[in-house]
Design goal:
25% helix, Pseudouridine synthase, ten-stranded mixed β-sheet, Structural Genomics Hypothetical 15.5 Kd Protein In mrcA-pckA Intergenic Region, Chain A, four-stranded antiparallel β-sheet, 3 domains
């Protein structure tokens, strides 16, 4: 079992306690069961490099070291290059400081920068919203909901388990209204409407690595899960649109899939403007110049711009400004200033939510 997790800017330490059901297991087998994102060879390498210690059992341990009930292990993961992001062969300069929009004794509302994880998961342990604020406050910070790493914008964090337990059900019960700003390419399936909704069901058709790709099914289909998104187009030209999406449910990739299904795949979306194969090429750093040209941006163009809910008996609307990495693209494609778009977004959110 995991006894403790300690996050620091440059390393992450996990303490485990060996229980009865793990008595006699090899050290590498035990750690692999808790760290499925690492291969067995990666676990073995970390043990051999001295990144794993067994308290009260001095000396250097081997992957084959047998564990005993009551043993305490400490696995230390140091920050390296595995969270770096690349575009056209060059490492991106990532923003690792979220902007605080609101904070009181219970809640933190931030604008999460792109590529920051909501909380530690898999190999993403350091550039995380919860870790950032845990280093500031010196205590556990709780994620109330989550955003994909590439998606920027509004994110709620709780300073206590009670806050998370109070607010998380609001998302599950549909009592939190959310708005996302998106930038999309116009494909032939787009019918030109400025306001439309999608109720296509969403689900995956695989249990393998490609399960990350989500399919849309007709509302009457028994596959997938029910989902609904409303869309409002703010600006458009012959090739692109800028708009707002209002998800009524919280399915994986919901806005991206519903947008694509209506002929508006998001700019930079390697899965739905591209394909699963293209997504893998970018992931493995094998993307071609043509892949980069088709995507136009290093990430999918989705930003959580507003959230509206009842907080401490008061209806609150929290807003996040447009992210800096969207501005040059918007100026190039639409000749619009960010200030004009911000005013339009504010007007639309006030009308929609209130």
């Amino acid at each position: 079992m995991i006894l403790e997790k300690k996050f620091h800017p440059d390393y992450f330490a996990i303490t485990y306690l060996v229980e009865d059901n793990s008595d006699g297991l090899r050290l590498d087998q035990y750690l692999s069961s808790y760290n499925p994102s690492f291969s067995r060879e990666e676990i073995k390498r970390r043990i051999k490099d001295g990144h794993v210690i067994i308290l009260d059992r001095p000396g250097k341990h081997k992957p084959t070291t047998k564990l005993r009930v009551g043993d305490k292990l400490v696995l230390t993961l140091h920050k390296t290059t595995h969270e770096d992001e690349y575009w056209n062969g060059e490492k991106l300069e990532l923003d690792t400081t979220p902007k605080t929009i609101f904070e009181d004794e219970d809640l933190i509302v931030i604008s999460k920068p792109p590529y920051m994880a909501t909380h530690p998961t898999g190999k993403h342990l350091f550039n995380c919203a919860t870790v950032f604020f845990e280093n500031i406050h010196g205590k556990t910070i709780h994620s109330i909901h989550r955003l994909d790493r590439e998606t920027s914008g509004i994110l709620l964090l709780g300073k206590s388990p009670k806050t998370a337990q109070t607010l998380t059900p609001l998302f599950e019960e549909g009592l939190v209204q959310k708005a996302y700003f998106f930038m999309a390419k116009i494909h032939k399936d787009y019918n030109g409407d400025d306001f439309f909704s999608s109720e296509k069901r969403l689900g995956t058709e695989s249990t393998g690595k490609d399960r990350v790709y989500i399919f849309a099914y007709d509302k009457e289909d028994n596959r997938g899960k029910s989902a609904k998104t409303e869309f409002k187009i703010l600006y458009k030209n012959e090739t692109y649109v800028l708009g707002l999406a209002f998800p009524k449910t919280g399915r994986q990739h919901q806005i991206r899939v519903h947008a694509k299904d209506n002929g508006l795949p998001l700019v930079g979306d390697k899965l739905y403007l591209g394909s699963y194969q293209m997504f893998q090429r970018f992931k493995d750093l094998w993307a071609s110049p043509e892949d980069h040209t088709e995507m136009e941006l290093p990430r999918h163009a989705l930003h959580a711009v507003g959230i509206y809910f009842d907080y401490k008996n008061e209806k609150r609307l929290f807003r996040a400004e447009l992210p800096h990495d969207f501005i040059p693209w918007i100026k190039e494609k639409f000749s619009l200033e960010a200030e004009e778009i911000e005013k339009t977004i504010e007007y639309e959110l006030q009308n929609y939510f209130k």
